[in-house]
Design a protein that fits this description.
The complex is a heterodimer. By secondary structure, chain A is an all-beta fold. Chain A is about 0% helix and about 55% strand. In chain B, the strands form 2 sheets. In chain B, strands 2, 4, 5, 9, 10 and 11 form a 6-stranded mixed β-sheet that branches. Chain B has a 5-stranded antiparallel β-sheet with strand order 1-3-8-7-6, with no helix packed on it. Classes of the chains: A mainly beta, B mainly beta. At the A-B interface, strand 4, strand 5, strand 9 and strand 10 of A face strand 4, strand 5, strand 9 and strand 10 of B.
């Protein structure tokens, strides 16, 4: 079974731009969660999608949004990029979400200049 | 105070040594993950446990729900075990989410 894939792997943007990241979960997994990892804050939960609905959301501004499609693929969007948005963005999929084992993708490294 | 705390933050060991990484949490949790992250970013789930003990190869994870404490043990450590080890607790409740520890950077020297 193929693992979680994320595209693109690397991205460079400038302040004020917007970006869309994509995550394809393991086949059969219906939950996709997104995380941000920075040297200063470590790993932080962004949001979780399950069956095309946002089920949980972390403490991030509204510039961070996401969606999930009927095939469980998910996208995350960040608008009006700030320097502090530079981070590794990870998605993870699981069968049903909640307190179940998560399988992580390789991440997208975003650099904002 | 972080809701999930790990110790030590950095650990250097000689090949073959027995290693223990500790995780304490203050949130009420429904389960706990141990994760491994190698340079370059990829995260691998090592264990998810809600009680007792799990073993996989040279890795052992234990959890004590009453004491809100979990440990990850590595027996007969090897340089390829060098990585960051992260514990993450499911917060439970209506806004169930993973809360991460700050990680333990392990370097195993040959």
């Amino acid at each position: 079974k193929a693992g979680v894939t994320q595209t693109p792997r690397y991205l460079i943007k400038t302040r004020g731009q917007q970006v869309t990241l994509s995550c394809s979960p393991i086949s059969g997994h219906r939950s996709v969660s997104w995380y941000q990892q920075t040297p200063g804050q470590g790993l932080q939960f962004l949001f979780e999608y399950f069956s095309e609905t946002q089920r949980n959301k972390g403490n991030f501004p509204g510039r961070f949004s996401g969606r999930q499609f009927s095939n469980s693929r998910s996208e995350m969007n960040v608008s009006t990029l700030e320097l502090g948005d530079s981070a590794l963005y990870l998605c993870a999929s699981s069968l049903d979400g909640g307190s179940t084992e998560q399988f992580f993708g390789p991440g997208t490294r975003l650099t904002v200049l | 105070k972080n809701e999930v705390e790990q110790s030590p933050q950095n650990l250097t060991a000689q090949e073959g040594e027995f290693i223990t990484i500790n995780c304490s949490y203050s949130v009420g949790i429904s389960a706990l993950h141990w994760l491994q992250q190698h340079p370059g970013g990829g995260i691998v789930s090592l264990f998810m446990l809600s009680s007792g003990k799990k073993k996989h190869g040279r890795l052992i994870a234990t959890i004590n729900i009453q004491e809100k404490h979990s440990s990850l043990h590595i027996t007969a450590s090897h340089p390829r075990d060098s990585a960051v080890y992260i514990c993450a607790a499911w917060s439970g409740g209506a806004t169930n989410k993973l809360i991460f520890g700050t990680g333990t950077l392990l370097a195993v020297q040959p």
